[in-house]
Amino acid sequence: MRLRKVQGAEEKISESPFCIKDPAEKKGQWKDVFKNKAPIHLEIGMGKGKFLLEKAMSLPKINFLGLELHESVLVRGVEKQEEAELDNLLFLRENAECIEEFFEPGEIGHIYLNFSDPWPKDRHKKRRLTGGVFLARYDRLLPAGGIVEFKTDNKDLFDFSLEEAENSPFRVDTVSYDLHSDPVLSQGNIMTEYEERFSAKGNPICYLRLVKGE
Ligand code: SAH
């Protein structure tokens, strides 16, 4: 992905009260950070944050964390949250590879992966956020009953992810190759930026829901 550098993004992120600077120091203490005991949901690769802002607005009794590697997109989410000032939404400018440094097992109840980078080359397979190495990380973090939800319009990435999930400790709970046409699954679906863009082009959206067993 090509990213345009956004002037002042680094400064804005480092100054924002909605961005947690040293997440490893908060490991095991996220309830104190949010100042309540509500469940915590994490979006990995949140981009500009549309999905999370809307989720956090519609579910005030859930705390949301957004993790994003790139400042140039994260800053857009930060700007929206500085307007909205939601109590239940915070961001981390971090790499998903480090999530086990940030959370104790059981601290995060739900993980969202929306339009994750496909990394189509075989030699970059390990970077895919739905690959076996990442699924094993999510499995160690989530409690029994914990959920991973994944949306993409990239069929190759979806097929790869489904295969990885079938060979993982997770139970494959729901699979759809056309989320928006499914009357049940599409109910209450919040569209991400990429989802709006790609579904407007006519691409069907694939959806996968994994559940961690007892
Ligand atoms: N979820 C958004 C953005 C999708 S693009 C949407 O659906 O609109 C994928 C995003 O994941 C990019 O912003 C990219 O910077 C981020 N990303 C990719 N690998 C990451 C990693 N290892 N850790 C954190 N974020 C990552």
What is the percent of helical residues? 25-40%
Q: Spell the H/E element sequence.
A: HHEHEHEHEHEHEHE
Summarize the main sheet: 7 strands, mixed
Overall spatial form: globular
Give, in spatial order, the strands making up the sheet with the most strands.
3-2-1-4-5-7-6
**For the residues shown, what is the average pLDDT?**
96
Q: Can you list the ligands bound to this structure?
A: S-adenosyl-L-homocysteine
Which regions are unreliable across 5 or more consecutive residues at pLDDT < 50?
none
Care to count the β-strands?
Answer: 7
The chain-level structural class is alpha/beta
Beta-strand share of residues: 15-25%
Number of helices: 8
State the separation between the terminal residues, measured CA to CA: 38 Å
User: What integer value in Å does the Rg equal?
Assistant: 16 Å
Describe this structure in words.
The mean pLDDT is 96. It is globular and about 40 Å long. The N and C termini lie far apart (38 Å). Strands 3-2-1-4-5-7-6 form a seven-stranded mixed β-sheet, with helices on both faces. Strand 1, helix 3 and strand 2 form a beta-alpha-beta unit. Helix 1 crosses helix 4. It is an alpha/beta fold. The protein has eight helices and seven strands. The structure holds S-adenosyl-L-homocysteine (SAH). The site of S-adenosyl-L-homocysteine (SAH) has 20 residues, from strand 2 and helix 8.
Outline of this structure?
By secondary structure, the protein is α/β, with parallel strands linked by helices. 32% of the residues lie in helices and 19% in strands. Helix 1 (9-15) crosses helix 4 (71-84).
